[in-house]
Amino acid sequence: MAIAHAAPLLSVRGLTRRFGGLTAVDAIDLDLAKGELVSIIGPNGAGKTTLFNLVTGLDRPDAGNVSFEGQDVTGLSPETLAAEGIARTFQLGRVFGNLSVMDNVLIGAHTRLRAVKPAVPLIGPLLELGLALLRPASVKVEEEQLRKEVKVILSRFGERLLPRIDQPAYSLSYANRRRVEIARALALKPRLLLLDEPTAGMNPTETAEMQALVAELKAEGLTILLIEHKLEMVMRLSDRVIVMDEGKKIAEGAGEQVRTDPKVIEAYLGHGLSDAADQQESAA
Amino acid sequence: MSSWLDYTINGLIVGNVYALVAVGLALIFGVSRLINFAQGSIYLVGAYIGWVAVVQLHTPLPLTIIVVAVAAALVGLIIERFGLRPLQNSVRIAPLLATIGISFVLDQLVMLTFSPNPRALPSQLPDVRFQIGGGTIEPLDLLIAGVGLTSALLLFVFLRYTKLGWAVRATAQDRDAAMQMGVDVNRVNQAVFGIAAALGGVSGLLVGMYYNQIDTAMSLQATLKGVVAEVVGGAGNVPGAVIGSLLLGLVESYGVAAFGTSYRNLFAFLLLVVVLVLRPNGLFASARQAPPEPLTGTFIAPSRPVRIPRWALLVVLGVFAILPLLPVSLYVLQTLINAWLLGMLALSLTLVAGTIGQVSLGHAALLAIGAYTSALLSLTFSVPVGFAIIGGGLMSAALGTALISPSFRLRGHYVSIATLAIGEIVSLVILNWEGVTRGPIGVSGIPPLSLFGYELISPTSIYWFSFVVMVVLALLQARLLGSHLGRSFRAIRDDDVAARAYGLSLNRYKSLAFIFGGFAAGISGGIAAHLYSYINHETFNTQQSILALTVVILGGLGNVVGAVVGSVALVGLPEVFRIAAEYRILIYGIVLLLLVRFRPQGLLGTI
To answer: What distance in Å separates the CA atoms of residue A67 and residue A31, rounded to the nearest whole number?
Structure first.
């Protein structure tokens, strides 16, 4: 197994989240080394997205902890975690519908704003308001710089987004909204990128493009946690694969090894078969 | 009379009345995730139908109750069929605005039919008092308790043992699943609106009899009280609504016992704000429910703003700037001064409701804060009027933001409720804090507008002054929208979860929006105070909040030019068509309804 010896970038221990009687995430352990790409697979409702929500601060765990670069970040707000360099995309696609593609991606760079977002306690917000209204040279320069950067990020998607840069996101196709989400995440210059089904609803050509992009990001050294249903993509990209079912981690390892694990096959084929078998046994 | 038991009985009886309103609200919220702001209007309609029945038709009491219930249910069905069903697939803000519009239309229709003067509604019951322990109880108390218990029982049987009742509960649990199982959701909605309206109407009748007086101001109060009770009990929770109502009744009754009658509503709204802040899901819901998954960009209608060429704007601006030099009547200038003052308020509201998506229904409170601050600064401390107005703007920005900040954690309809309540709290504090605000007497003798020692008394100078102030505020706001703040505000409006995941602090940016918006509204209030020379706690009322909201929807949410165009249109057009003042609010309500239905993005489009 390719687990790095250095301290992991992300380390999750015993993470648990219950909704009423349902344990959506059940004592999950997970380590992610710098530059690694780990995929999480599992049937629908296995708790993958809930795990993402816990790691990014959108939800709080009932037990367990998350540490990022050696620091305990359990239960920190999503704003803080974004500032720490954790960026994510959303399964259902959460672009800002009325914002242009450019503005959507610029929001991604929000945590990096310096000139317009002074880090002064108490009067910081008022200074921010003042600077936004006065717009001294430093503010303009920063904004221009970011706009150039956004264009560079968008050019990674070929001609998919650049010609639509001023269009509102609600007018984009489903696949293009996904791309905008990824562009927005990249604008944060993340140290950890969480992708939640980036190819959902994409046709084979588009999926191949996305796969190439993720491979490129990995080659650039970005650490990525990926939720994906398309197994071929998972097998090609991942250093390791984690399989979840009913909130639990049921298998972990290299792609091929996980693929042949009987527990994984059972999880995918459904418990119905084994349950039915059990019942027959007990009846007999 | 002053016994503890009396206050308890009174609290429970009033609570019972609130419960009739709140249960309806809870049922409606359950099946359609909508807070029906028109519920109080149905209550008002019920009270007046009861008055017609009792005073003019001399119906016996049981028949009166039946007539009111049936007539109110009919109103409810009409609202559902023509007001809300067409909006089923539209954005979330649409039904919210529609019920606000319906509420104003109904209230105004009642006011135009029966005049705004209070009327006596005799209770038709013998005037005797029974002694119980240290307290007394009247037949009417027993009637109210009886009606409350009977309704609860009937409702329980309906929800538990009838097929339609099951359908209502199924729809409340999971609308989509219910639809897939073949539940006719339209019929469920109809049933729920009918029941809610019948209960609300009877409630209005009973309250009218209890106080032996009905007037058109009852409507807003009833909506507020019902919503408070419902939210305290947990939105959509029917038994919770009953308990919340009784609790509200008791809190108010004991509050009145301890501090006096004028504090009654203050306690109700403070209870609401405390519950919203500490337990936004109500007293009986678990604090940690599954996080909701709102879809993207569904709160406001997506649209492309109409692009107006810069030269056209400059030409129009130029025409209005030199208007006093042209041969126009004083009347036109006077009307436009009103439009500019409303324009400042609309700029404020379009930023708060449109750009960052916090639909405030208490915006007139910001006017009041600005007006009182400016008036008192110039009167008590002899601050020059120009500075006093700026002081009013700053106070409104600071105090308004501080007051509204507890609601920053809330979403969608809850923000509207909280702002409505906070608006009422401000007005009640102004009424009761006599040491500072001079209480019900109001502030008179406010010095006229002046600038650098020159008094602005001629309509021409007032026109220019208010025009320039409004244009400056509009330019500042346009500049704000073009900055990273504009984009951050709009991102929070479109999807606050994604915005947080990218490091946008909701508290920080909502505060900034209210600070900026509060300043503009405070300036408008300050100027108004010096123009009117007299203000009291009713000068800036909910009608102005609703007028501003209509302006904002008309112009296009978040649209700076739209806010100004909308103000000129809504102030100017009634003058052009010489519509009598009492019909205007009716027309504003109808305009709001038509816009929501046919052009939700407004004239110039959402930005």
So the answer is: 10
